Structure formats: structure tokens, C-alpha cells
Amino acid sequence: MGAVLAWVSACAVLLGSGGAAAQSTLEKIRQQGYIRVGFANEAPYSYADASGQLTGESALVFKHVMAELGVPKVEGVLTEWGALIPGLRARRFDAIVASMYITPLRCKQIRFANPTFGVGEALIVKAGNPDAVQTYADAARADKKIAFVAGTAELGHARLAGLKRAQQVVLPDFAAAVAAVKSGRVAAAAFTSLTAATLAAKDDAIERAEPFTFTHEGKSYRGEGSFGFRMEDAELRDAVDAVLAKFIGTEAHLAMIAPFGFDATNLPEKTAAQHCAGQ
Questions:
Q1: Which CATH number fits domain 27-118+224-269: 3.30.1310.20, 3.30.70.20, 3.40.190.10, 3.90.180.10?
Q2: pLDDT at 208 over 70
Q3: Residue 190: partners with Cβ closer than 8 Å, 6 or more residues away
């Protein structure tokens, strides 16, 4: 009898564990009332303000979406850019909320919601731009070095533009890239045009070079970014897309993102599926 009872108890535990494991991420975050998200502290997209609150274009849009889905709180987990996708897949957090461009390579690792913004690129240079570097091609021709944050799309674009490996200085975060420019270690650092403008506005020793949209072999690489989720979280991604479809481009949305330097020219032009397909 004792053996039978033990077997029944074991079955009950296993069944209970199976039920808990079957709970989706969307169900979990609704039940607990919050979601943890990875961010890389990049203004104006997603960063911690002076009070430690998560803010920026991506952060506020994501908070709006979560509120619509019945999740009132968003907790940020500060993460180096190159560790965002590994951290998501390792379940350190349940979404990436950053300026992450949707690219075919990244689409093989995570699911993206439809884009919330579109933006070109720009280089940060010393004040006065002493090396006269405006684009990746300029640096490639002049044999100048450019700093990149590890894992960013700008690095891939620069390689397509002909920047040699010896000219690429890959650093862990945005502050390190700016420091490399100021110290003279590199001639420039590559960012999205809005990030570059935000950084330059805070420091008289640097400036933003002329913004540009990178093109290669007739294809435009204007970056469009959004939120990232684990591959198994299609339900959560689809729920987010449904809210975004009703919100992006509305007057309320444009008013929300205006304080961060975004306007109607930054509205996305493609879907996540198009970007994932390399279109």
C-alpha cells in the first residue's frame, strides 16, 4: 500500500510540474503583474533616467503595450549590447527592449515584433571632425579606424562598405566607443543617427557627422528596430504586434516619442517578416 501511495504522489507531482511548465510567458507575466526586459542603456531608445526609471522611445512604447496587455510593470535588466540575445535565450529576462535592428541573422535567434522606428546612421567624431570622416567609405579610403559597440548592425554595414578588420575597434558599450574617439584611438564611432545626436549634445568635445542611410549594391540598409522575444514565445510576440498595429503612427504615439527626437519621418516602412527575409 505504501508503495502504491508513493507512486500516486509521484504522479501528482509530475502532473503538477507539467502544468506549471506549460504556462506561457504571456500568462506568466499577466499573473505576476510585471515583465523583466533587457536593455543596453542607449539614449534615446531605452535607458535609465536620473531616478533609475526605464525611459526612452522603445521603453515607453513597450510600457504602453504591456499596459494594454494587462501587465502594469516593466523591470529593466541592464545588459551589455552583445549579451542581450544570449541573456534573453538564457531567460535572464523575457524581452529585449533596445534599439535592436531587425536583421536576417538575428531573426534566426529570436522573434521580433514589428518595428516601432526607422533611422539612419551617423558617426561621432571629435569636434571639428579633424579627420573629415563622414561615412564608412570615407574611413575605409583614408585608412582610419572606427569604434563599434559589439553586436551592433553598424559593424556589419561598415564591413560591407569595405572597412578592413584592422580598422574595426569593437568595444563593449557606448561610453567606451565615445571615449575611444575623444582619446584619439579611433577617428570615429558608429551609432544610429539619433544615438549620435544624443551623445554629441552632452559633450562639447565631440560632434555628430552628417547622418546617412547606408546602401550597398543598390540596397538600402535603413535600420528598423523593435522588441525581441524567445522563439518559443510566439504568443507573446503576436499579442504585442496586435497592440502595435493599433498604436504606431497615431497622434498619441507621435506625442509619446517626440521628446526623444523622433517624429513621423522615423515611422517604420517594413514589417518584421520583410526584414527577416532580407527584403
A1: 3.40.190.10
A2: yes
A3: 121, 122, 123, 124, 136, 146, 147, 148, 152, 154, 155, 157, 158, 177
